[in-house]
Amino acid sequence: MRHVAVIGSGPAGYYSAEALQKLYGDEVRIDMIDRMPVPYGLIRFGVAPDHQSIKAVSRRYEKVALSDNVRFVGNVLVGRDVSIPELVDLYDAVILATGAPDDRMLDIPGGDLPGVVGSAAFVGWYNGHPEFAGLDPPLDVAVAAVIGNGNVALDVARILAKTPAEFAGSDIVGHAFSALGGSAIRAIHLLGRRGPHQIAMTPKELGELGHLEDAVPLVDPADFPPLLDDSLLEPGQRKSVTHLRDFANLAPGKAKSIVFDFFARPVAIEGEGKVERLIVERTRLDDKGGAAGTGETYQIDCGLVVSCIGYKTPPIEGVAYEEDRGRFANSGGVIGGGLYCVGWARRGPTGTIGTNRPDGYEVADRIAADLGASGGRKVGGPGLDGLLESRGADVVTFRDWQRIEAAEAARAREGSPREKFVAIEEMLGARGRE
Ligand code: NAP
């Protein structure tokens, strides 16, 4: 028997569990430890609430979770309830699948003014993450600036632009649904420090902006390189750029505008006690494709700035960490000393949900190579249970989660799959007891 602990129950964690099951069948026991009383990490707290088809991947993880040899050990914080050295003593392998939930900071003057929020906080707010439920972003303003040209910036701009009716079928939390319904925002500036050819947005997601009920995407035709240059792009990127070229033919005419500010690098945020304006330097591409400042600046009068410039994995004491890349130091997912990492904790915050799958399969192979044919020697789950019990931890099981989920479904708005609990106490309370 091999005993494996997976820390984090998001996509990277579940693909690792799936891969270990495929490799070892009944000869493995997997404990998925999560600091939240609810599983699925990024699927619940990161994927946009109006992208239910992406969130549906959790049904695949549920199949893994319901197997006899996989346990969900929720509401357990590594570092508080159990330490990494203790887990390494108890399990034959410990996989860090902790994702990258922390914002990369926008390091410019005024970046700490009220009204500047990071995407982890903003996305967590509309997705019901307990840490960000109280964010209360200023929506009583006419203009918002969203910094970054990746898919997260797109999610944020789209959520700010949608009408209440467009959230039908989503699982946006009640507090965000009401606040966005009363929003005064009429212009959303989407700032990229480079040009249309350098966006990190994917075509399907970008195309959605062209079909919003009450908002129109606007692009300045002068920002494009010659049309012929599009043929040099890889097909996905070419499709995205084609969407942008289509947007450049649109004119204002709906209640809200999503304005693409290309070649625009934020240099300062100003205001009396809160955000009032964003100072932006115009850029051009340098010969390596990077953004070079031109010294010319302009300002965007705005009351909300959402910075969507990427994430980092929180370091764990005693585990080697690469500060510049915001991830654990590892070689092909191996950290060493019985520790492994997968997903964003391994690669940094890039790639879609599916990108985590090969990570999971690779780490399973690495573990198998390290353990060899003899199998494991550690005690695994019973040892963890003893430790957690002695520390009075209130562990949430997968069965408990199913009760929480049923309670969320029971109080859902019409047409919505659930109304999420946002406080940990509410989640724990919803477990009920048979
Ligand atoms: P991302 O794709 O890496 O995009 C980050 C953006 O921030 C880039 O445009 C980058 O510009 C810009 N940026 C970085 N530092 C900056 C700075 N100091 N000032 C101004 N701009 C800066 O990251 P993400 O949007 O957080 O997404 C993370 C991953 O999740 C991506 O792989 C994404 O595709 C995925 N995701 C997918 C979906 C979906 O499929 N629906 C939804 C959300 C997220 P440069 O290119 O110039 O560095």
Tags for this model:
alpha/beta; 434 residues; globular; 6-stranded parallel beta sheet; binds NADP nicotinamide-adenine-dinucleotide phosphate
Uncertain runs are: none
* Distinct compounds present: NADP nicotinamide-adenine-dinucleotide phosphate
Kindly report the spatial arrangement of strands forming the biggest sheet: 3-2-1-4-19-18
What's the number of helices?
15
Characterize the overall form: globular
Provide a descriptive summary of the structure in words:
This protein starts with a strand and ends in a 5-residue tail after the last helix. The chain is an alpha/beta fold. Helix 1 packs across helix 4 and helix 1 packs across helix 12 (356-371). The chain has helices at residues 11-24, 42-45, 52-55, 58-65, 84-90, 119-127, 151-161, 174-181, 203-207, 235-247, 344-347, 356-371, 381-390, 398-410, 424-429; strands spanning 2-7, 28-34, 70-74, 93-96, 102-103, 116-118, 143-147, 187-191, 215-218, 256-261, 264-270, 277-285, 291-301, 304-307, 311-312, 321-322, 327-328, 334-336, 339-341.
